[in-house]
Here is the input.
Amino acid sequence: MTRFWRSGAGPRKRAQMLILRWLLKGALVFVAVTVLWVGLYRFVPPPFTFTMMGDLLAGRSVTKDWMPLSRMDPNMPRAAIAGEDARFCSHHGFDWKGITSAAEHNVKGGRIRGGSTISQQTAKNAFLFQGGSYLRKALEAYFTVLIEAMWPKRRIMEVYLNVAETGIGTYGANAGAIRYFNHDATHLTPTEAARIAAVLPLPKKRAAIDPHGFVRRHGDKLIRYVGVVRRAGLDSCLR
Here is the structure.
């Protein structure tokens, strides 16, 4: 019996080593491909996203119109910072204070509050699919680390404001401005920028034109905060 068990130990160990080598190779290929992917998007606008693909598969059209951050009205990134990530310029991808605050708020009940940063949302929107699975969250964290390491903050904001949903089948602040206000994003009033930013957390259920309920209240609050972001220098990394 002992001799038989030992004779099977060799092949079993070789199989385990083979599996381990394949897993290691797979991990190295994954890292290499994703690093190249993120590196490419530092200079090239993302041509398409998985969220856009989902709209097409659902039978909806996709409207997008890329605009460089240098041409976009500064009120738009300020409104995004005011509404989504006040510490965008000071954190390195993860706002631990915001995550802790959101968790404490959610434990108490009421409206669920998220703790994700603009960097995390950019990673999700540019490279991943929507959803709340643990795998997707882990990949989101991985891509967040990559873009924070490989992109300047201006690029993160630029990609975010061009691939984030601003309405059903509408992607980016520029396409949103054209949809809601009949002009592009080169000139946005604080009110217009705030209304687009108020739609970002739930774009398929909210509209920036003739807003009501939460969108109106949140948008009115953001109008005031756009000036605060400018005066406090919370957008200093974008200048």
The first strand starts at residue 63 and ends at 64. Residues 2-41 form the longest helix (40 residues).
